[in-house]
Design a protein that fits this description.
This protein is mostly beta strands. It is built from no helices and 25 strands. The protein has strands at residues 6-16, 24-35, 38-47, 50-64, 69-73, 81-87, 93-98, 106-112, 123-134, 139-150, 154-163, 166-170, 173-178, 183-187, 192-197, 203-208, 215-222, 238-246, 249-259, 264-273, 276-289, 294-299, 302-309, 315-319, 329-335. It has an eight-stranded antiparallel barrel with strand order 1-2-3-4-5-6-7-8. It has an eight-stranded antiparallel beta barrel with strand order 9-10-11-13-14-15-16-17. Strands 18-19-20-21-22-23-24-25 form an eight-stranded antiparallel beta barrel. It starts with 5 loop residues before the first strand and ends with a strand.
Length: 336
């Protein structure tokens, strides 16, 4: 089975909008160090886009079960897991969401660090999904679309953005840098996110937000450009984490999705809604994957999102489509 050991890029995004203090969203980016069941998180974080001093969370524990199921525990707080999810078969990419009642809904991603790439390691087209909160006006935005990287530090994109159920088309032009361990810094012309690129260039994760009013995260998956993919590309079992804003509440879920390889799927997932835990429930729907990996997914006849899947089917990302009154949301699928 996979091993969760060594240094990983770490990004997370969560928030709350129920009662008590004013609404907030917190984004984190840094490093997760895993060794023999011990877990340390070293990260910087922004709250509503405002930067805060670096934090080291030590004394955490993790458990990697059969089939790649992953749990994180804060022993000084509780012996019960505070976040659960899964790790891919190679031990490179993991996704988790908070499950402990009273915790903020939050999605976390880890990606093994490695290599010493330069900007030429990130080149060509990538699918993108992103989620941000901008307290100036109380805007919640999810995006799905594509980015074209030039291999020399520049990129441009075409994004469909859901702003609290409304529609925006954006064509950003920005810059990026790559450094030791695959650290990736990406700027879209207004906001800078920090994270990492996989050693094989297949996927990247990003978090933070240097814009003084934005906290967010993003995931990139390299596009397949030669055809030959389809519904059968999604196969096996997937850990699925989602983050969504429903008016008045943040919602995160974590579950296991089973596709049938022919356009159908079922999923059992538990949810956290502004600190209230909801027990596992099973849902089902359909999906469609093009020959180059563009993907859309429906649940119970309703459109969940669109995005893309990697050429090997190991990771898929979805963002809620533009407008139509749908809530901003992102889904990240990692094959176990």
């Amino acid at each position: 089975g996979p091993a969760f050991e060594g240094a990983y890029h770490y990004v997370a995004l969560g928030g709350r909008d129920a009662d008590g203090p004013a609404e907030y969203a917190i984004a984190r980016y840094g490093t997760a160090l895993a060794a023999g069941g011990d877990l340390t998180l070293d990260f910087r974080w922004t709250e509503n886009g405002d930067p805060n001093p670096p934090v080291t969370q030590s004394g955490l524990r993790y458990d990697l079960g059969s089939g790649g199921l992953l749990q994180w525990v804060r022993p000084t707080f509780s012996s019960a897991p505070y976040a659960e999810g899964g790790l891919d078969r190679a031990g490179r990419l993991g996704v988790l969401a908070t499950t402990f009642e009273t915790a903020d809904p939050e999605v976390s991603l880890v990606l093994r660090r490695g290599g010493d790439p330069d900007e030429s390691a990130l080149v060509g087209p990538y699918y993108l999904v992103a989620w941000t909160y901008d307290p100036d006006g109380g805007r919640h935005l999810s995006a799905s679309g594509s980015c074209q990287f030039d291999g020399t530090g520049g990129w441009e994109g075409m994004w469909s953005i859901n702003e609290d159920g409304g529609s925006i088309i954006r064509r950003p032009i920005g810059w990026y840098t790559l450094g030791t361990g695959g650290e990736l810094v990406l700027n879209d012309g207004s906001t800078t996110l920090v994270g990492g690129l996989a050693a094989d260039g297949r996927v990247a994760i990003l978090g933070g937000g240097s814009n003084p009013s934005v906290s967010g995260f993003a995931v990139l998956v390299r596009q397949h450009t030669v055809g030959g993919l389809g519904d059968r590309t999604l196969s096996g079992r997937y850990a699925v984490a989602t983050l969504q804003y429903t008016p008045g509440a943040y919602l995160s879920t974590i579950g296991i999705l089973d596709p049938d390889g022919a356009g159908g799927w079922s999923m059992t997932a538990e949810a956290l809604v502004d600190g209230t835990w909801l027990p596992p429930a099973t849902t089902s729907g359909d999906y469609e994957i093009s020959d180059v990996g563009a993907m859309n997914l429906h649940r119970g006849g309703s459109w969940v999102g669109d995005g893309g899947v990697s050429s090997d089917g190991g990771v898929a990302i979805l963002g809620s489509p533009m407008g139509g009154g749908l809530d901003p949301r992102v889904w990240v699928l990692v094959r176990l």
